[in-house]
Amino acid sequence: MTAAIENQNKNEFDQAVKGSSLNKDAWRRLKKNKMAIIGLYIVIIYAFIAVAAPILPIYSYKKIILDHQHLPPTFTKTAGELMYEKVKTRMLIIAKKRGRTELNEREQKKLEGLRHKIKTEVKTIDGEIVKLHERIYYLGTDYHGRDMLARIIYGGQISIAIGLIGAIVALIIGITVGAIAGYVGGAVDNFIMRFVDIMYSLPYLLLVIIFMAMFGQNILNLFFAIALVSWLTVARIVRGQIISLKNSEFVEAARSIGASNRRIIFKHMVPNTIGIIIIFGSLEIPAFIMYEAFLSFLGLGISAPYASWGSLVGDAVEGMADFSWRLFFPAIIMTIFLFSMNFLGDGLRDAFDPQSKNKL
Amino acid sequence: MTKFIIRRFLGIFPTLFIIVSISFFLIRAAPGGPFDTEKAIPAEVLVNIEAKFHMDEPLVVQYGRYMYDILRGDLGPSFRYPDHDVNYFIANSFPISIQLGTISIVLALILGISTGIISALRQNTWIDYSTMGIAIIGISIPTFVVGPILMYFLAMKLHWLPTSGWITGRHGYVTLIMPVITLSLPFYAYFARISRASIIEVLRSDYIRTARAKGLSGPVIIIKHVLKGAMLPVVSFLGPALAGILTGSVVIEKIFRIPGLGKFFVQSAFNRDYTIIMGTVIVYAVMLVVLNFIVDIVYSFLDPRIAYK
C-alpha cells in the first residue's frame, strides 16, 4: 500500500513526497524519547564491556588468592597495604584483649615477615608473572580473594548472553509456531493454542526450579529450562498479527502469483510483524536476565567458578553486614542495566505502536 | 453466564492433572534418588526401604498409586524425615506463606490502584512523574536485590527492625514489614502503571463526558464510572500477579528466613524428597488454578462479553 504512494513521489499539490517506512517512522519517534535513548547508550556500553572483557585490563575472575580475602574497595591502596592493615588491626585487638597496648616481639616479627612477603611475592597467572600484592581492587574482593570488578564484568557477560540467547530462542520458536497457527488456522491453530493455554496455566517457574535442582546446574540446562516456556507470549502475539494480515491484499497478490505457503509466511507476513517482534525481544531480554538471576540467587543457576549478576548477589547475602561491597556493586550494576533495558523497551513499544495496545 | 462458570470450573481439573503428571515424571526422570546418601546403604537395607515406599514397583504403578492417594487427600510420607508425613509439613508451613502472600497482594492492589488514580488525575505533573518513577524502579529492581538492601539498612545499620524471623517469634508483627514491602513492591508498581494507563483511557471516553455533562460531581464520576471501566486490565493482571507472588515468596522466604512453603520446596528438590516436592507443587498449583478461576469469574462479571465469546 505504501509502495503505491511512494512510486508517485508527488502529492496533489505537485510537491515531492519522500516515502517513509514504518521502521523509519519508529526510529524517528524513538529518537525523541530521551530516556529510551539514554537507555540505548547504556545498553551499548554494557554490551561493549561484556564483549571486550578478555582484552580489558582487569584481573582474573576465577583465580583464588586466599591472602586477598574480603578486601574492601579502594582507589588508592594496594592489596598489600590493605592486607597489612587488616592483619595489624587484628593483632592490636587481640593484644588489647590481653591487656597490652603494644605488640609483642613475636607479633612484630610476624608483621615484618608479612611486609617482606608483600614486597617480594610473585605468582604466575595465565603464564604471566604478577606482583600480586601491588594490585588495586577498585571494587574490593570476594570470599576467595577474587576481584569483584572482574567477576561483575564476566558475570555481566553471562547474564547478558543468557538474556540475548533466551530472547532469540523464544522469538524463533514463538514466531514459527505463532505464524503457522495463525496462517494455517483450523484444527492446527486450535491444537497449538490449547497447548499454549495449558502451558500458560502451569506454574512454570516452579517447574523450572524442580528441573534445575534435579538435573544439575549447568548453563545448558538453564537455557533449556527457560527457553521451554518463554516462547508462549510471542507465539500468541505473532498469531494474532498473522491472522489480521492473512486477508490483506499483498498476501492475496503473493498467493495469486503462486508463492508457496512458506514463502508467504516468512517473506511476506513475518516481516510485517517486525515491530511487535522488536518490542517483545527488547522486553524479553531483561525478563530472562531476571529469571536467570532469580535461579542463580536460589543457588540453582550458574555455579562457581563462573558468575552471573544473580549468583554474585546471592553469594553476597551471607555476610553482607561486614562485606557490603559484595552486595552493592553487583546489585547496582545489574539494576542499572535492567533499568536501561526497560526504558529502551518502553520507548521501542511507544515508537512502533503509538496507540500502545500492549501497554503494561 | 452459569454455563461459562461451569465450563471454566471443569477446566480446572485437566490443568491440575497435567501439572501433577508432568511434575511426577520430571522428578522421577532426574538422576539420583532420595536414598542417595554420603554413606552407602547396604543393598538389603535399600531393598527394604524401597519396598516400604513402594519404590520397587514399576513407575506406572507408582504413578497410579500416587494419584489414588492424593485424591483421598493423602500426600504420603516424607522420604527424608520419616517421623512426619507431607500433610504435616504443609499444614505447618502453608499458613505462613498464605499470610505473607495475602497481605502483600492486598497491599499492592490498594496502594497501586490509589497511586494510579492520583497520577491519572494529575497527569503530567510532578506527582505523576514521581510516582511513575517509583513504579519503574519497582519493576526494574529484582526482589532479591530489594530484600537484602532493605535488610542491610533497616536491620543491620539502623537496627529499626529485626533481620529475620516470623510473627510467632519474639519480635511479633514487625517481622512482617520488610518481607511484605519486598514482595509487594513490583506488583504495586505494575498495578499503579496499569491502572494509571487505563484510567487515562477511560477518562477520555464518551460516557465519562456524558456523566460530566449531566453535572455529576468529580468523586462520583471517578468512583461509579471511571473505576468500574478502568478495573478490567487491573483484574486481568491479577492472575499473573498471583503467580508472581507465589514464586516471589520462595525468594523472600529464603532471604528473611521465613519458615514457609517456599523454603521446603527448594530444599526438598535438592534432597530428592519426592513426596514433599510433589506435595508442594500440588498445593501451589491448586492455589494458582483456583485463584485464576476466581479472577476469570470476577472478570466476566465486570465485562460480560467475555462469557459469551
Explain this structure to me?
The complex is a heterodimer of chains A (360) and B (309). Chain A is mainly α and 360 residues long. Helices cover 67% and strands 2% of the residues of chain A. Chain A is elongated and about 95 Å long. Chain B has 309 residues and is mostly helical. Chain B has twelve helices and no strands. The longest helix of chain B is centred in the C-terminal third of the chain and has 38 residues, at 218-255. At the A-B interface, helix 8, helix 13, helix 14 and helix 15 of A face helix 2, helix 6, helix 7, helix 8 and helix 10 of B.
Q: What's the arrangement of secondary structure elements?
A:
The complex is a heterodimer of chains A (360) and B (309).
Chain A: H1 2-8, H2 22-32, H3 34-52, H4 79-97, H5 105-120, E1 123-125, E2 128-130, H6 148-184, H7 186-201, H8 204-215, H9 219-230, H10 232-246, H11 249-256, H12 261-269, H13 274-297, H14 309-317, H15 325-352
Antiparallel strand pairs in A: 1-2
Helix pairs in contact in A: 2-15, 3-6, 3-15, 4-5, 6-7, 6-9, 6-10, 6-13, 6-14, 8-9, 11-12, 13-14, 13-15, 14-15
Chain B: H1 2-10, H2 12-29, H3 43-52, H4 59-71, H5 86-121, H6 126-140, H7 143-157, H8 177-203, H9 206-213, H10 218-255, H11 261-271, H12 274-302
Helix pairs in contact in B: 2-12, 5-6, 5-8, 5-10, 5-12, 6-8, 7-8, 7-10, 8-10, 9-10, 10-11, 10-12, 11-12
